[in-house]
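Would you mind writing out a protein's amino acid sequence and the numbers that encode its backbone to help me picture the idea?
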Amino acid sequence: MGTPNEPRASTFGLRGLLRVVGVVVLLAFGAVAARGLVKLRAAPFEWHTVQDATMEFLRQEQLLFLVTDRVVTRLDVSLKEGSLLMGWRESVLIGTVEFFCGIDLARIGPDALAWQDGTVVVTVPDPEVLKVAVDTGSLTLFSKRSGLIALRDQLSKRDVRAELERQLEVRARAFAREERLLPGRDDMVRRLNEWAAPLLAAQVNAGVRFR
């Protein structure tokens, strides 16, 4: 009996690609911070205090929009299996997948912070696929199978659709890497230095640089 084919990206998936960066949300974040979300702290310098303030700042939900890109695309995964005795099965599942790519700020720990020449230097991790969501309402399954395989499925209660749905999520993560859809690290660092660094600098009363 054969084994499932390697999931593949749909040829029309790229045409459905949509990347949205939350610029409007970033502007709103800056406005909210200016009204007091990020409060100034005037206190004698202590590195552990600066570390704690920096970590607290980086955990704010508003920053997620700064370092996250949303991608929507259509993908397909397929399954072909069978034998001369049992006959054959061919199934293809097509659907819309949404995934978020960017920097996981929760991975930034105290070891990623350094004090250099009066500046807090924050080393950020590489961009990655943060979350994948399959739009189950968009899924379409095309399948044909022999009578013997259909009987075997019924007796074993096998759910091929559920199997392909799980493969679709895995395929989305691989698709992002293969098609180089992950945002560039330099771009993520630029966003942080442009939007977040001034706010954090005001909070810790020191220069701030992301790298």
Observations:
- The chain is about 35% helix and 30% strand.
- The mean pLDDT is 83.
- Helices lie at 23-37, 47-58, 147-156, 160-178, 185-204.
